[in-house]
Amino acid sequence: QIEQHDNFCFIPSEKLAICLAHLMTEELFATILAAKPSSIIILDRAFGDDVNLKVNLLLRAERQGVEVEVV
Known about the structure:
By secondary structure, the protein is an alpha/beta fold. It is 31% helix and 24% strand.
């Protein structure tokens, strides 16, 4: 079973969120975290050149015990 959301998919059985959005925002990341994943896969290009946003969101996920893989 895969749950389709506006900008990401969530696989409850695996507690995995996959986000293929072209632009990552703090709001989108908060929505993904609200799905309670244990792992998130995000495209690196979604952060553009905003290294601060990338680091902040990765640290936020880490504090909540969520593993993030940027590909």
